[in-house]
Write a structure and sequence with these properties.
- The protein is of the alpha+beta class.
- The protein has a four-stranded mixed beta sheet.
- Strand 3 and strand 4 form a beta hairpin.
- The chain is elongated, with a radius of gyration of 14 Å.
């Protein structure tokens, strides 16, 4: 089972963890609320986990332009 991280704003693949067994506590997922977990974590048919996060470029862009927080997708 792999865990894939991607930016929720621009779609850039940020990394993959290829580990057979890993607990949500090791990933910090236990600190998410149920709503945050539903929004950020998804599972595909192969049982792999996909986590939507934010890349450095999008974070910097949103810091400089806070009005863009209303948009789901950013092009930079």
């Amino acid at each position: 089972m792999a865990i894939h991280y991607h930016c929720r704003h621009c779609g850039m693949k940020m990394g993959t963890i290829d580990q057979v067994s890993i607990h949500s506590e090791q990933l910090g997922l236990h600190k998410l609320s149920a709503e945050e977990r539903q929004e950020m974590v998804s599972y595909d048919q192969q049982g792999e986990i996909h986590i939507a996060t934010i890349c450095e470029d999008c974070q910097e862009y949103l810091t400089r332009n806070p009005e863009y927080h209303q948009y789901d997708f950013l092009i930079h």
